[in-house]
């Protein structure tokens, strides 16, 4: 009887020890998972490690990953200005194409010019393919601008500065200012003889 009592006591102590070690292991694992969770702040912050953007899969765990994220945010600003430039150039190419059509039509009709006659206008509509391309370019601009806005809403100072630098670099590279000055006219008020070919900066396309 004494041997049986000692054996059961030893077994119970062993089971209690195993259960305690299992609970401590579970607590340790749970603590480590919580320490690597995403840090999302809705106020201005300078967080680097354990920051997340847009989804939990974009989880920054090292400084190198954060540097790549900042470069990606800057490239969004650059790509937005690039898309605006492409869209502007495509619009100008459509206008030049219509101007060639109008010149050919005028040459074929040989309409005599009458001094003092009102100007004649010809209206062209974009073809379905041209309109699809215009819509795709607009969609791309809107998508890039919206994603950039969502990233900025995490209020991370490094990411916002990267977005600003990307916008600056994109404007510098892809939207170099060109100004057409009309000559041979009587000078009027300052800037009245200058045609500035610029576009206002828009947030979402």
TrEMBL record:
Its subcellular locations are: Membrane
Say if the entry is tagged with keyword Magnesium.
no
The membrane topology of this protein is: Multi-pass membrane protein
Molecular function in Gene Ontology: copper ion transmembrane transporter activity
| Keyword tags | Copper, Copper transport, Ion transport, Membrane, Transmembrane, Transmembrane helix, Transport
- For whether the record's keyword set contains Transmembrane helix, the answer is yes
Gene Ontology terms: cellular component:
membrane
Q: Which residues cross the membrane?
A: 61-83
Q: Which InterPro entries does UniProt cross-reference here?
A: Cop_transporter (IPR007274)
Instruction: Enumerate the residue ranges of region (Disordered).
Output: 1-28
Pfam families in alphabetical order: Ctr
Assigned protein family: Belongs to the copper transporter (Ctr) (TC 1.A.56) family. SLC31A subfamily.
Q: What name appears for this protein in its UniProt entry?
A: Copper transport protein
Q: Which organism is it from?
A: Aspergillus rambellii
Highest lineage ranks of the organism? Answer: Eukaryota, Fungi, Dikarya, Ascomycota, Pezizomycotina
